[in-house]
Amino acid sequence: MDVKAAMAEAAEAVAETMDRLLALPDGPEARVVEAMRYSALGGGKRLRAFLVLQSAALFSVSRSCALRVAAAVEFLHAYSLIHDDLPAMDDSDLRRGRPSCHKAFDEATAVLAGDALLTYAFEVLAQEETHSDPRVRAELVLALARASGTQGMVGGQMLDLLAEDMDSIDASLITRLQRMKTAELLCFSCEAGAILGKAGKAARHALHSYGQEMGLAFQIADDLLDIEGDSSVTGKPTGLDDAAGKATLVAALGVENARAHALMLVDQSARHLDFFDDKAKLLKQVARFVVERQA
């Protein structure tokens, strides 16, 4: 199976799991769950879910357990997109080719939907169905909290907002910002399979290192799409980062140097997977996919 077919199969499987986990309740509070479902089930590449499933397969982890972790990561990712699109953040009216959550519903409902997806991600990880060993469940919760909190995604978003008002910002600070904002959650997705499989330190380190460098390459590719992409293909507005004066490696290095840097990161990320021999073939392919994608 090639990587695009494998990603499509994974996306379908995790969407079914998410749909089941996000059942609509009775009563007026169902509105917030409708907003959660609108954002979480509204398409997307499901890259993070794919990384969870592929890393879990390296250690022969139960597919049902891996799908629950994959769903939890996608719930958390959906929360971050809802909040990113808010007028107080990136002020984007379009996401995945549809109106952003705050445009489809309203700002207050969007905030609540994001909050609920964030907390539900941890609830899913903590449930016994995710893994029979409570230590594994606790480790998953801890690792995701670190990847998404002040030392990860939230901290990176804060740096991103602060950078808009800086007169200048060097490549090392931009790399730190992007590692926190984007790469840390991808690192968790890669390492989650090793946590589920109770793998040793060497395997976990290889997956974490792969995720970090692939995640940085992913963000450069995203920034290139903001400049060169077509919004009808990407499903979100283009040119917003440049207009807002966002700190990106594309702005710091130039388009061609940034593209070359992304390709170098992909090559480096793939070398970390030599630890797993041919079993990590699809993970190597998806690293190349993230820098060649058009959306």
UniProtKB/TrEMBL annotation:
Pfam families per record: polyprenyl_synt
InterPro entries per record: Isoprenoid_synthase_dom_sf (IPR008949), Polyprenyl_synt (IPR000092), Polyprenyl_synt_CS (IPR033749), Prenyl_diphosphate_synthase (IPR053378)
This protein's GO CC annotations: cytoplasm
Keywords: Isoprene biosynthesis, Magnesium, Metal-binding, Transferase
Molecular function, one GO term: prenyltransferase activity
Cofactor: Mg(2+)
Superkingdom of origin: Bacteria
GO BP annotations listed: terpenoid biosynthetic process
Transferase is among the record's keywords: yes
Protein family: Belongs to the FPP/GGPP synthase family.
Family annotation (PANTHER family): FARNESYL DIPHOSPHATE SYNTHASE (PTHR43281:SF1)
Name of the protein in its database record: Geranyltranstransferase
Species the sequence originates in: Oceanibaculum indicum P24
